[in-house]
Every structure is written in C-alpha cells, then in structure tokens.
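Supplementary Text 2. Reproducibility record for the structural model of the 178-residue chain.

All settings were left at their defaults, and a single model was retained for analysis rather than an ensemble. We include the record here because the model underlies the residue-level annotations in Supplementary Table 4.
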Amino acid sequence: MLNKLKSNTFQFFILKAGLLYGLCYVTYEFVIKQYTKGDQLFVRQIINLCQWIFNIIGYKTFASKEVNDVQVFGIDGSNGVWIGGPCNGVTLMFLFAIFVIAYPGNVKNKLWYLPLGILTVFSINILRIIALALIAYYAPQYLDFNHTYTFTFIAYSAVFGLWMLWANKFSAKTSIEN
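Retained model, structure tokens:
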C-alpha cells in the first residue's frame, strides 16, 4: 500500500505534510506551550530585537512581563501591541518548513533553503510587529484592521511565495505528478 501511495506523488505529499503538521501541532500546543516557557521566551526575544531596532532609530519603547501568555510591546506614549503565541510566527515557520520537507526535492537544497526561509519568515514577523507598533503609536484606530487583514495577508503571501520559489526553482521536481 505504501508503494502505491508513493507512486502517487501528490497523495504522498499530502500524507507527509499532514503527518508532519499533526506532529508539529501536538508538540507545540500540548508539550512546548503547556510544559515549557519556550513560547514566551521566544516572544521575549522578538520583543528584545524590536526594542533594539527602535532604539537604533531613536524611539523609546516599553515592554511588559508575561501576563496570561501575552506580552505587550510598544513605543512610549502608545498602548502598544499584544504579542502572544499566535503572534510569534512559529506556526508560519512550521507551515513553511513542513511544505519544503514534504515536497519532493534535493536534500542538499532543503538544508540551505529551510534555514533561509525560516529566517525570512522570522524577519517578516519582526517587520510586522514593528509596523504594528508604529501604527499603534501614530494611528491606533487602524491597528485592528492592519493586524487582522493587512499583515496576515502579507505574511501568508510571503510564505506562499517561498513555497512557490521552492517548488519551481529549487526542488528536484518542479511539479507534483499524479
């Protein structure tokens, strides 16, 4: 049965991606978030990087300690933005990595493309948080819309673009065959 499934590349890709996603989801939601502070430590590192960037460009910032799995970060004089598990970009990094791992391709290419893509997704998330902090400071009435729609669209579009780049340029197979 496995050989038959492997012969249908698309079905095998979907099965691998589904199993990897399930494994990542269970590990993240029911181990990392429940029994470790890894998630909040990652959020703190994101905040530290954002504070460093804002300090370079001359803004004074603030950051709260963790309260109910959320930390607040912003520019002094604003209400800031709440950053919790769903906002740390880990899920997007998982989705990107799962697609590349599950999709047919040269292992050597995966070894350099995965870290580069994860770094790209991480960087996009940092830019998203910086932009949201600026919006919270200069035009807070637009914060909710931009958080919910604009930056969600940008982040998922970037991940999709990275997937397409992998599938069309760097994987050994340029299409999934039936």
